[in-house]
Design a protein that fits this description.
Elements lengths: L1 E3 L10 E6 L3 H6 L1 H10 L4 E7 L3 H5 L6 E5 L6 H17 L4 E4 L4 H9 L4 E5 L14 E3 L10 H8 L17 H13 L8 E5 L11 H14 L3 E4 L6 H10 L4 E3 L9 H7 L2 E5 L2 H8 L4 E4 L5 H4 L6 E4 L20 H4 L3 H15 L6
Parallel strand pairs: 2-3, 2-5, 3-4, 5-6, 6-7, 8-9, 8-11, 9-10, 11-12, 12-13
Antiparallel strand pairs: 1-7
Helix pairs in contact: 2-6, 7-10, 8-14, 10-11
Length: 364
Amino acid sequence: MLVKGKQISLEAIERVLLIQLGDIGDVVLTIPTIKALRESRPTSALYVAVREHARELLEDCPWVDGVISVERMRGTLLERFFHQRDFLQALRAKKFGAAIDLRTGTRGAILSYISGASLRIGRYADDGRLWRNRLFTHLVKPENEMEQYSSLHSFNIVAPFKVDAHEIDPELTVTREREMRVERMLRDEGIGSGRPLIVLHPFSRRRYKEWPTENYISLINYIGSRYSVHIAITGSVDERGRVAHLVKKARADTYNLAGKTTIGDLPAVFKKCGLLIGIDSAAMHIAAAVGTPTVTIFGPSAAINWAPRGEQHEVIFKDLPCVPCRQKGCNNSEVSRCLEELSIHEVIPVVENSLRNILPQKRR
């Protein structure tokens, strides 16, 4: 619902800046909105501003003319000053006609304002009435988002401006160059093409989303004892030690790929695998966006908002009356009873069903 400004069309605007300063998964879920903006304005330029760690995901996007990386401030005070000056000059030199901020934070609002765009569209923030909301010429306050798939949340902000969405599922482009780089990496790790690849992505920066480590060890051993597959575990550089612990404890041949690729090459890894098993994280969205089936273990977050759509995607969660609580663990304690109590016996049948669908002839 448009609560500030009049409904207009973006079609005649030559340059648009779309601002998505959320996490990596949020960037992936914004892709349907990016595509919708491109289709509504096929001859205009579209730039997307993201945090630096997500930039690579959009570099190969066919609907984007440029990606602006909003970097963390580093160096001395003087170095940061000059960096900010150069960034501001480069941003304003693009002469954006419209800037669209998809979130309620202040950083995106400031970026929208300093871009110099005369039309500034933002998401209404309940706590932004003092100054944040005033930076925008137009404000949108969506309704009923608690029951929506999250890819629609960003589209809600552009919908009042005569932008139609024909697809809601994210789609990531994987270039041949990235595929070849990942193929070399997999060969170097000892993962050949003779057996299907199953990937686990067990960890998150938010520990309250994680399933207990010992359960993954049991799951790896179960899969390895019944299917002739390669099992690999992905994660960040910081998670490499935790993944090494899983690999050491597992009885099946398991490979540690944590930190082995950039975020831009991770879609190519998931495109090579037959199934991704993991938790509510960016990996789930990336895998689904390259067409790979997923099994996702959910805890306090809501599958109705975050789970990929489609019959090839399975969701597992503990049947408790408090699920989903949408909190950071039980009473925001960073510990989630719904995940701690989710047993391996509740997860195996769902994983087994997915494996049978993708590996009908591969059972040992």
